[in-house]
Predict the structure.
Amino acid sequence: MFTNTIARQMKVWMLSALMAVSVSSYAQDKPNAENGKKLYEANNCGSCHALDKKVVGPALRGVHTRRSEEWLIQWVRNNEKFRKVTKDPDAIALYAEYGGAAMNIFENLTPANVLDIVEYIKTAPEPQKAVAVVADANQPKDDSTTLYILLVLVGIFSVVLLILARVKNTLKRVASEKNREELAALNAPKKGFFEKILPGKWGKKNPVVLALFTFAILGGAGAYYGFEFSITEVGVQKGYAPKQPIAFSHKLHAGELKLDCKYCHSTVEESKQASIPALNTCMNCHKGVQLTDKYNGEISPEIKKIYAALDYNPEAKPGEEYGKNPRPIRWVRIHNLPDHAYFNHAQHVNVGKQNCQTCHGAMEKMEVVQQHSTLQMGWCIDCHRNAQVDVANNNYYKALHEKAAKDIAANKSKSKYFSADGKVKLTPAMNGGLECSKCHY
Ligand code: HEC
Ligand code: HEC
Ligand code: HEC
Ligand code: HEC
Ligand code: HEC
Ligand code: HEC
C-alpha cells in the first residue's frame, strides 16, 4: 500500500519533470505580443473582432482561457477545414452560435504567428477610460459603461453621505433639547461644507438640494456624453467585407455589364427591404454564360456553385435539368441595423429620391461588397438635417409644402425655411425626420 503510493508519486514527479523539459524547449521561441499586434492589424482581425465587445465575431479577450493553443491554431488558420474535415464539436458549435457568419481563412499565418496573436490578446491592456479611446472609423469601439456607473455611484454616494450628516445633526439637536445654550449654539449660523466651497448665497442652500443639483449636472453630462458616444462610436462596422459563398462581383455585373441595381434588387423601390436576388435571376444569363474559354473547356467553378445550389445539371436532357435537391446559397449579410431601428428603402429611394451610391458608395466599382457608411444614428440624423427634399409634384410632402409656403409669406426672408444662402431649404428633419418614433419601434 505504502510502496504503491511512493511509486505513484515517483511517476508524477517524473512526468512533471518531463513536461517541464518539453515546455522549456518549446518556450525557446516565446510568443511575441508585439509581432502579434502587427499581425492582428495587418490581417484586419479588427474588422470583425474587438477585444472586449462582440462585433461580427466574439470578443477575443480571454480566448486563451476557453480554447487550447492547438485549437486556436487550427481555428484561425482554417476554420472551415477545422469544422468540416476535423469536425471539431466546439468549432461547429461556435459557427452555429454566430448564425453561420464565416470567418476568413488565414493560412498565410504560421502556427507561431497565431500564438503571437494570442499573446497579444493575452497581454493587451484593459480599456481604461472612454475618453482614451482613439477614434478610428475602421476599428470597432469599446464600451464605456463602467465610467457612467462610476459617475452614478459617486453621485448616489454623496447624496447618502449628506442625508446621513443631516440625520446626525437632527439627532444631536433632539438630544440636547434641554440644554438651551447648546441648542442656541447649534442654531447659530455656522459655515457648512457648501458655504466653504461655494460663493455667496449658493453656499446657504439646503445641502441635500445642492447635492441633488450637482448629481443632476454630473448625470446629465454623463448621459449626454454616453449618447453622443453611442451614436457616433459604438459598433461601427464600416468597411466590413466578408467573403461570399460565390465570388460574385458588382464591379463586373453592375459596372462593366451595366446591369441596373433594380434588375437584381428588385423590391428596393416598393418595400422596406432591398431583396437579394434568387439564383434563378443569375440563370437568365448563366445557363449560357459558362466561361468555358477561361477554364480550358471546363465550366467556371464559380458558376458550378450556382448549378450545384439549384441542383441543375447542364448535361441533362431538356426538361430534366433541375433535380429535386436544391440547397439555397447563404450570402453573408453585410448591412445590418439593430432590431430597434427601422429603415425603409422605398421611403428613401422612391419618396426621398436618394441614390443607392449616397449610402452604399460606388458599388459598381466593388469586386467584393463592402459596407460604405457607418449606419449609425448620427449618420442618419446628419443626412436628415441636410438633405434637400423635392416637394414639388410629390403628394407625400403636401402638408410640409403648405406649411412652408405660409411661413415664407408671413416671415419673408426671415422664414426658417430659407437656408443661409437665401434658397428655400426643406429637409427630412422639417418633416419629422428627427422624431425618435419614426426610426425606433
Ligand atoms: C470576416 C470577419 C472575421 C475576420 C476578418 C476575423 N474573424 Fe475571427 N471570427 C469571426 C466570426 C464570425 C467568429 C465566430 C465563429 C463563426 O461564425 O465562424 C470568429 C471566431 C474567432 C475565434 C474564436 C473565438 C472564440 O470565442 O472561441 C478566434 C480566436 C478568432 N475568430 C480570431 C481571429 C483572428 C486572430 C483574426 C485575424 C487573423 C480573425 N479572427 C479575423 C469573424 C472574423
Ligand atoms: C446581377 C445581380 C446584381 C446587380 C445588378 C446588383 N447587385 Fe447588389 N447584390 C447582388 C448579390 C447576389 C448580392 C449578395 C452577395 C454579395 O454581397 O456580393 C448583392 C449585395 C448587395 C449589397 C449588400 C447587401 C448586404 O448583405 O448588406 C448592396 C448594398 C448591394 N448589393 C447594392 C447594389 C447596388 C447599389 C447595385 C447597383 C449599382 C447592385 N447592388 C447591383 C446582386 C446584384
Ligand atoms: C445579364 C446577365 C448576367 C446576370 C443576370 C448575371 N451574370 Fe454573372 N456574369 C455575366 C457575364 C457576361 C459574365 C462573364 C464576364 C466575362 O466574360 O468575364 C459573368 C461572370 C460571372 C462570374 C465570374 C465567373 C468566373 O469564373 O470568372 C460569377 C461568379 C458570376 N457571374 C455570378 C453571377 C451571379 C451569382 C449572378 C446572380 C446573382 C449573376 N452572375 C448574374 C452575366 C450575368
Ligand atoms: C438612405 C440610405 C440608403 C439608400 C439611398 C439605399 N440604401 Fe440600401 N441599405 C441602407 C441601410 C441603412 C441598410 C441596412 C438595412 C437594415 O439592416 O435593415 C441597407 C441595406 C441594403 C441591402 C441589404 C438588404 C436589406 O434590405 O437589408 C441591399 C441589397 C441594399 N441596401 C441595396 C440598395 C440599393 C440597390 C439601393 C438603390 C436602389 C439602396 N440600397 C439605397 C441604406 C440605404
Ligand atoms: C443620404 C441621406 C439620408 C440618410 C443617410 C438617411 N436618410 Fe432617412 N430620409 C432621407 C430622405 C431624403 C427622406 C425623405 C423625406 C421624408 O420622407 O420626409 C428620409 C426619410 C426617412 C424616414 C421617414 C420620415 C418621415 O417623416 O416620413 C425615416 C423613418 C427615415 N428616413 C429613417 C432613416 C434611418 C433609420 C436612417 C439611417 C439608418 C436614415 N433614414 C438615413 C434621407 C436620408
Ligand atoms: C433618422 C433615424 C433616427 C432617429 C430620428 C432617432 N434614431 Fe436612435 N438610432 C437610429 C439608428 C439607425 C440606430 C442604430 C445604430 C446605432 O447603434 O447607432 C439608433 C440607435 C439608438 C440608440 C442605441 C444606441 C446604441 O448604441 O445602440 C438609442 C438609445 C437611440 N437610438 C435613441 C434615440 C432617441 C432618444 C431619439 C430621439 C431623440 C432617436 N434615437 C432618434 C436612428 C434614429
Notes: The two ends are 72 Å apart (CA to CA). Residues 244, 248, 250, 253-254, 259, 261, 263-265, 276-277, 331, 333-335, 356, 360, 363-364, 369 surround heme C (ligand 2) (CB under 6 Å).
